Amino acid sequence: MKTILEPAKDLPIVAEPDVAVGGGGPGGIMAALAAGRRGAKTLLIERYGFLGGMATAGLMTSFNGFRNEHEPNHVQTVRGLAQELVDRLAAAGGACARTSHGHFGELKPGHCPYAVSFDPEVLKSVALEMLAHAGVELMLHTAFSDTLADDRNVSAVIVENKSGRQAVRAQMYVDATGDGDVAARAGARFEKVKKSGERMMAVTLMYRVMGVPAPPEGERRLWVNGLTTRWGPRINEVDGSNAADLTAAEIEARRAVMEHVESLRKDFPDVTLVETATTIGVRETRRITGLYTISEEDALTGRRQPDSIAVSSNPVPNYYGKRYFLEHLGFEIPYRSLVPADLDNLLLAGRCISASQPAFQSARSMAPNMAISQASGTAAAMCVAADCQPADLDVAALQERLEKDGALVRIPPEERE
Ligand SMILES: Cc1cc2nc3c(=O)[nH]c(=O)nc-3n(C[C@H](O)[C@H](O)[C@H](O)COP(=O)(O)OP(=O)(O)OC[C@H]3O[C@@H](n4cnc5c(N)ncnc54)[C@H](O)[C@@H]3O)c2cc1C
């Protein structure tokens, strides 16, 4: 490939927060909220003009994995900030229990079934309010573009927006870009499976329609406030961290979406397309290598982790060629999987944590993802307060703090043999 030399230039340092969070999806919202509530001066950087990531821009309107989808599912393994978000969504008329695979669960304050459907517009608004209340500053319409790092230490991140190219210098960084952009640009090692042959999850363009009646009990459908979310064109062998692949996938999916709507009209003649997602939905890209990588065996056996900060009960949807349901209450997520092996002052949040492909496919779902990210943000703020690096954080103090904040950090001892 031909190259061109970009001349070096001085960039304005536009913000110097304690904690800079890159990406405002479910992971980034929770990380920033947790850091802000713990008193850290927190900045959230997001490329779109609204929050929610795949939950809003990708129109993926169901938080899955508050508990196992099948038995044993009697323990709700995701609580804390994720529960608070659902409670606020429900109070604002933007959430309802999702009917899925014949599993019904009640949605009531402080209690979630396996999955919760939500209205993405209500989520945009509720997330903004929660972050504003926690004193989190937002930098919207701003794309993270590069990381400046001296060896293992991130010294600044470079962002691009209408005002030009700028720098943000923080004490602690949280990578919640989904793709692990911030850590990868700093040179951190990562895993990413090949597009073909290793079952990289497909991308899907989601859309919403009106004119479909509310689903009868037992039918698996995403229906909130009169609108139905549909899984649209699905495209394989796309690397969501490659711009050319994304462009080709968007074009192919957008050309095919009207056929989807047309075929839906066979069952529901009054259907009207309300919107397609702002972006094609990317399920899987990089997993940054951490101090510990959650193995397949960890996930399948539900191995205990001494530094557990969250639990994932969600099925593994794709890796085994079928929806694989865990045979236990959930597997524990070690704090070490949030700490990159190659960087000192950065924490991972959301779907880019260090995990094998099957463990990732479970924990990426939004309920466990939010629980993990609450821990990332809490840890970042605690590192700032203690003036220490994530690898040196007192994990027992982190676990205690998370429990005080309503999170479930491990499978309750009485539930273990
Ligand atoms: C089609 C599809 C179906 C799914 N189905 C379900 C489901 O039914 N239930 C469920 O719970 N989960 C589901 N998931 C998974 C879930 O949506 C994701 O795993 C989850 O949203 C990941 O959250 P995140 O915050 O880690 O990343 P994301 O949601 O991807 O958020 C990342 C955020 O970072 C921003 N960002 C990224 N790069 C940059 C940059 N360079 N500069 C600035 N901002 C940046 C993005 O705009 C985005 O807001 C699905 C995903 C897809 C794609």
Polypeptide structure, described:
The structure is a single chain. This protein has two domains: 13-192 and 285-415, FAD/NAD(P)-binding domain (3-Layer(bba) Sandwich); 203-276, no CATH class. The longest helix is centred in the middle third of the chain and has 22 residues, at 243-264. It has 417 residues and is an alpha/beta fold. The chain contains nine helices and 20 strands. The model has no long low-confidence stretch (mean pLDDT 95). It has helices spanning 26-37, 80-91, 120-133, 181-185, 243-264, 296-301, 357-363, 366-386, 395-404, and strands at residues 13-15, 19-22, 42-45, 62-64, 95-97, 115-118, 137-139, 143-150, 153-161, 164-168, 172-175, 190-191, 203-210, 222-224, 227-235, 272-276, 287-288, 308-312, 331-334, 346-348. Strands 7-3-2-11-20 form a five-stranded parallel beta sheet. A four-stranded mixed beta sheet has the order 1-10-9-8. It has a four-stranded antiparallel beta sheet with strand order 14-15-13-16. 26% of the residues lie in helices and 22% in strands. The chain binds flavin-adenine dinucleotide. Flavin-adenine dinucleotide (FAD) binds next to helix 1, strand 4, strand 8, strand 13 and helix 8. Flavin-adenine dinucleotide (FAD) is lined by residues 23-28, 45-48, 53-55, 57-58, 60, 62-65, 143-144, 176-179, 181, 204, 206, 281-283, 350-351, 364-366, 369.
Question: How does the SSE layout of this entry go?
Answer:
Layout lengths: L12 E3 L3 E4 L3 H12 L4 E4 L16 E3 L15 H12 L3 E3 L17 E4 L1 H14 L3 E3 L3 E8 L2 E9 L2 E5 L3 E4 L5 H5 L4 E2 L11 E8 L11 E3 L2 E9 L7 H22 L7 E5 L10 E2 L7 H6 L6 E5 L18 E4 L11 E3 L8 H7 L2 H21 L8 H10 L13
Parallel strand pairs: 1-10, 2-3, 2-11, 3-7, 11-20
Antiparallel strand pairs: 4-6, 5-6, 8-9, 9-10, 12-17, 13-15, 13-16, 14-15, 18-19
Bound molecules: flavin-adenine dinucleotide (FAD).
